[in-house]
TrEMBL record:
One annotated Gene Ontology cellular component of this protein: cytoplasm
Pathway: Purine metabolism; IMP biosynthesis via de novo pathway; 5-amino-1-(5-phospho-D-ribosyl)imidazole from N(2)-formyl-N(1)-(5-phospho-D-ribosyl)glycinamide: step 1/2
Protein name: Phosphoribosylformylglycinamidine synthase subunit PurQ
Active site: C87 (nucleophile), H201, E203
MF term (GO), any: ATP binding
Role noted for this protein: Part of the phosphoribosylformylglycinamidine synthase complex involved in the purines biosynthetic pathway. Catalyzes the ATP-dependent conversion of formylglycinamide ribonucleotide (FGAR) and glutamine to yield formylglycinamidine ribonucleotide (FGAM) and glutamate. The FGAM synthase complex is composed of three subunits. PurQ produces an ammonia molecule by converting glutamine to glutamate. PurL transfers the ammonia molecule to FGAR to form FGAM in an ATP-dependent manner.
Gene3D superfamilies, per the entry: 3.40.50.880
InterPro entries: Class_I_gatase-like (IPR029062), PRibForGlyAmidine_synth_PurQ (IPR010075)
SUPFAM superfamilies on file: Class I glutamine amidotransferase-like
E.C. designation(s): 6.3.5.3, 3.5.1.2
Length: 225
């Protein structure tokens, strides 16, 4: 059985949604408080869930990056462990330099909370291997600081290494950028393809009665066969 460990900082508010989603898929889960000094040895996937760690003071994810547990997270990732950052988790991973780029305030300065379509750009990774390149999924977004930025040199590296995983689009797959992100980027991974980050919330798209179950195929990619 796949073991998913979910980080919890002061201000995290999506840890239980994430726990519900992975347990619904048959995984075993554990919520890990931010003062822990190691990642449980049986962890198959470490998730940094969404929310407002430390109230987003200074900058989203900027304080969480210095939590005690982050030293263990960095060691886990550098040893090849799989890490998924969702929304605030994505912001924490860029602040910790485990993923390139940064998340800025949305272009229109408004908090966005709605479903939005995403197009799969690369599926040569655990996260999106259950989907096809070109598939369009409908996943909730809820953020104020989701405007992904990376300079031209960094963008070229992302493209050359197939690190761009998801772009914001409309239902037909045409670019529709809700927050000003460079090249409409919604999700990326590191060069080694073991650290993933995205602003949308697949853990909130698990049941059609709630608007979409497109998150199921995304999270299933991490589960053991």
């Amino acid at each position: 059985m796949t073991k998913v460990t979910i980080l919890q900082f002061p201000g995290t508010n999506c840890e239980y949604d994430t726990q519900y989603a992975f347990e619904r898929l048959g995984a075993k889960t554990e919520i890990l408080w931010h003062k822990a000094d190691k990642v449980p040895q049986d962890t198959d996937l470490l998730v940094i869930a969404g929310g407002f760690s430390y109230g987003d003071y200074l900058r989203s994810g900027a304080i969480a990056r210095f939590s005690p547990v982050m030293r263990a997270v960095e060691a886990y990732a550098k040893a090849g462990g799989k890490v998924l950052g969702i929304c605030n988790g994505f912001q924490v991973l860029t602040e910790a330099r485990l993923l390139p780029g940064a998340l800025k305030r949305n272009e229109q300065l408004h908090f966005l909370s709605k479903h939005h379509h995403l197009k799969v750009i690369n599926n040569d990774n655990d996260f999106l291997k259950k989907l096809n390149v070109g598939d369009v999924v409908n996943i909730p977004i809820a953020h104020h600081d989701g405007n992904y930025f990376i300079d031209a040199v960094g963008l070229k590296e992302l493209e050359e290494n197939n690190q761009i995983l998801l772009r914001y689009t409309d239902a037909k797959g045409n670019i529709q950028n809700p927050n000003g992100s460079v090249e409409s980027i919604a999700g990326i991974c590191n060069k080694q393809q073991n650290v993933f980050g995205l602003m949308p919330h697949p853990e909130r798209a698990m049941e059609t009665i709630l608007g979409s179950d497109d998150g199921v195929a995304m999270l299933q990619g991490f589960l053991k066969a």
